[in-house]
Specification:
The protein has helices spanning about 5-20, 45-60, 70-75, 100-105, 175-185, 200-205, 220-230, 260-270; strands spanning about 35, 40-45, 65-70, 90-95, 110-115, 120-125, 130-135, 140-145, 150-155, 165-170, 190-195, 210-215, 235-240, 255. By secondary structure, it is α+β, with helices and mostly antiparallel strands. It has two domains: about 5-155, 2-Layer Sandwich (Fructose-1,6-Bisphosphatase, Chain A, domain 1), CATH 3.30.540.10; about 160-270, D-Maltodextrin-Binding Protein, domain 2 (3-Layer(aba) Sandwich), CATH 3.40.190. It has a seven-stranded mixed β-sheet with strand order 3-4-5-6-7-8-9, with helices on both faces. A five-stranded mixed β-sheet has the order 11-10-12-14-13, sandwiched between helices. It is globular. The protein starts with 5 loop residues before the first helix and ends with a helix. The relative contact order is 0.14.
Length: about 270
């Protein structure tokens, strides 16, 4: 399906975490954290060093693959549009959950997606603190592996009535009026939360512990890997207009649910425009 060895790529993520991320956790100096778009959009020297490490290894091990990293695109926005036409690309978030990492909260991850011919064909989410992976290749199911434990096949949670659903929703990028409507509608479900870390939200969903995930802003390093993993665990995912989520999309919202009927119910009752 792809010329990228997903296990080799997973090892690169783990090596980057060992070399550049874990040693800096709860050890950042004042000048090691900077803001990007706003005060809540952070980057640390660990993000930058980890991405350099991963990029170097990707270029050495997978020559010819386009490398699209969150920090690389921050430095060169012209890189992002190349993803739509790349024959083969690796999309990386060196630290997803940078706010948590900078605050000393042990809930962050390293993510990579493999894109071939405009489709996501592989996804990896590595937990540096738990030292394990959730990963999937298209058509091969979703698996949790690592930590010297046997691999476990993941299965998304089954459907439930709306009032019993639990999930994660990020409403930060809605305009104020729509955010107010969605937040009011979320009273219809049993539980809603937000880890400020898509990596762990997707891991939790794929492990069968949530009924839904909802996001509005769709940067590829945040959602390609997790969406594929969720789908391979049996979930249904689509943008708010019902169309598939593809690597070049950066807007249009994303809703993930156990099946299409649950997706339609959540879209109509909770996340309606």
């Amino acid at each position: 399906m792809t010329t990228i060895d997903i296990n080799a790529l997973a090892l690169v993520l783990a090596q980057a975490a060992e070399a550049e991320i874990r040693p800096r956790f709860r050890a950042l100096a004042k000048g090691d954290v900077h803001t990007k778009a706003d005060a809540n959009d952070l980057v640390t020297i660990a993000d930058e060093a980890a991405e350099r490490f991963i990029k170097r290894e990707v270029e050495a091990q997978f020559p010819g693959a386009l490398f699209v990293g969150e920090e690389s695109v921050a430095a060169d926005p012209a890189l992002l549009p190349k993803l739509a036409e790349a024959d083969l690309a690796i999309v990386v978030d060196p630290i997803d959950g940078t706010f948590n990492f900078a605050a000393g909260v042990p809930m962050f991850g390293v993510m990579a997606a493999i894109v071939s011919g405009g489709q996501t064909v592989g996804g990896i989410i590595y937990d540096p603190m738990g030292d394990d992976f959730v990963m999937a290749e298209k058509g091969g199911g979703a698996w949790q592996t690592g930590g010297h434990r046997p691999a476990v096949k993941l299965k998304a949670r089954g459907a439930a009535p709306l009032e019993e659903m639990t999930g994660m929703a990020s409403t930060s990028f809605f305009d104020r009026e729509r955010r107010a409507r969605v937040l009011a509608n979320l009273a219809k479900v049993a539980f809603v939360s937000n880890y400020r870390c898509a990596a762990h939200e997707y891991r939790t969903f794929a492990g069968g512990h949530l009924h839904y995930l909802m996001y509005n802003k769709l940067m590829p390093w945040d959602h390609l890997a997790g969406t594929l993993i969720a789908q391979e665990a049996g979930a249904y995912a689509a943008r708010f207009d019902g169309k598939p989520y593809e690597p070049h999309h950066v807007g249009g919202g994303l809703l993930v649910a156990p099946d299409r009927d649950s997706w339609e119910l959540l879209r109509r009752e909770v996340f309606v425009d």
